[in-house]
Every structure is written in C-alpha cells, then in structure tokens.
From TrEMBL:
NCBIfam families: ftsY. HAMAP family: FtsY (MF_00920). The keyword Endoplasmic reticulum does not apply. Belongs to the GTP-binding SRP family. FtsY subfamily. The gene is ftsY. It comes from Hymenobacter roseosalivarius DSM 11622. This is Signal recognition particle receptor FtsY. The lineage of its organism: Bacteria, Pseudomonadati, Bacteroidota, Cytophagia, Cytophagales.
Amino acid sequence: MGLFDFFKKDKESTEQQESLDKGLEKSKASFFDQLSKAVVGKSKVDEEVLDDLEGVLVHADVGIDTTVKVIKRIEERVARDKFVSTGELDRILREEIAELLAENNTGSAILDRPDTGAYAGPFVVMVVGVNGVGKTTTIGKLAHRFHAAGKKVVLGAADTFRAAAVDQLIVWGQRVGVPVISHGMNTDPASVAYDAVKKGLEMQADVVIIDTAGRLHNKINLMNELTKIKRVMQKVIPDAPHEVLLVLDGSTGQNAFLQAKEFTRATEVSALAITKLDGTAKGGVVIGISDQFNIPVRYIGVGEKMTDLQLFDRHTFVKSLFSKK
C-alpha cells in the first residue's frame, strides 16, 4: 500500500466514523437522556438502577430478551465487583453489549473472499425484505460499494410486481455504472434471476445482486417464490445464492423484529442489513436483532449518501452509540 492509499483509507475511515456518529445522533440523545434519569441521585448501581436501566434498554428497542441478557450480565458484574458506581455504568454497558455481539461475525463476504487467482464465478446475493424498508436503495448502495472496490457487478431486477422497483434499480445501475438485467414489470422473477446470474458468469463478474419481491402477504407463497428463484439460479451456479441478505427498516423498531422472524421462517437468511438508523431513536434495534436471530448484521444505513451504507462493526457501533459528543 502506497502512502497516498494509506492516507486515503484513513480519510475514508474518519469520514465513515463521522457519518456513523451523525447517523446515531437521535438514538444517542434519547438513550443518554433516559440513562441520566435512571441514575439521578444515585451513587451506586443497585436494584432500583438496574430496574430503570431495563426500561431504558427496552425503550431503545433493544428487545425484551436481549435486555434481560444485558441486565443479567451487569448484575453478575456488580455482584463480583461488590461496588459499581453509576458513573461507570455507560462504560460497563458498552463492554457488555460489545461482548454480547461478539458471537456474530460481521464484514462483507465478497470483499473478504480469498483471491485464488482463478475465477471462481460470481458471488450471488439474493436480497429480501418488505416494500418500504429501503431494499432497492440498499442494493444500489451495495453495488456502489463493490464497484468502488474494483469489483465487476451485475444487478437483477427480479422484483417484477412493482414497477417502481424495476425502474429504480435501472436508475441505480446507470448511476453506479453497472449493468442491470430486467424483463420489465409482471414478468417471471426467476427468469430475471437466471439471466442475471448467467450474465454474471459470461462477463466474469465478481458479484451478482438479485432484488426480489417485497411482499409478506403469505409465508407459503413467499417461500415458494424464493425457492423457485434459488432453484433456477442453481441451474447456472449450483451453490447460488451464496448469501441471502434481509433488509430491515431500523426506524420501525419492534416491527423489524417481526419481519425478521417471518423472513427467517420463510427462507434461509444468512445476513442482515438494517437501514434508516439516521431517522430514528431506535438504534438499539441493531443490538437486539443481531443477538436474537444469531444472524450477522452485515450492513447498517446511517444516511442518504451512497457511502452511508456501512459495514457493521460491533466495536465501532457501540463506541459511537455511547459517545457523548
């Protein structure tokens, strides 16, 4: 790596941190406001403080089950250390939450894929999620991320039941500079996916990203549709898709939990992207979903810019969430 590359990477890292800090401002403000009320007039972490802290975490949409885990960890720590001051509470919370998230690996599968020197075929990502969560926008930002990293990308517009989704993906393809395979509206989604994977193989693409219908009207129909798409893609690449990415809207809080539950029942979700965290005080939902579903949160959306879809790093996220700046 040359000196310019080093400084460029360092600058990008700083910009991403600033973007993350800004994107979590509402969550931080709400969280610390509630936390301050929970410890006011208290010098040590006692049962009353822990009860109030439980309410703070639930209010931040961390989720009941994950909140219970966090509280139990802090109780054990208080018992072990004999005395824990309320001034230490945010540091202890940060440490325990980061440790809780440690079980789930994060990172970008395709960017971490080993370079063997021989073309192994495209890495196929099938993207699922209900309408309105930012699914197609997330795909566009993913395409930008991979393209900027020097990867060849192909997009497949297989959400054919919604004209806006097809048109939107085509616009994203033009904006990023990557090809989009589209058969238009009301066409067979599996056929689009087949042609996209085939195109990816022909042009020796690194990544093929397939958009799918954003409907959760019936689990059986959803399962059948996604299974058909998988089966058809496997005629071209036997082990496709290599990743099923579920996109969730973080601003919906507990509703995001319900969507995650439904989609994980309907198909084998292997990674999560949680969007719209910049517009909500419910940033804790990332912690709860990552913990409860034991599925890695791969990306988080913290703004409108193409670069505001970030790789999720538990240490950076928790550090930003607990930063008082």
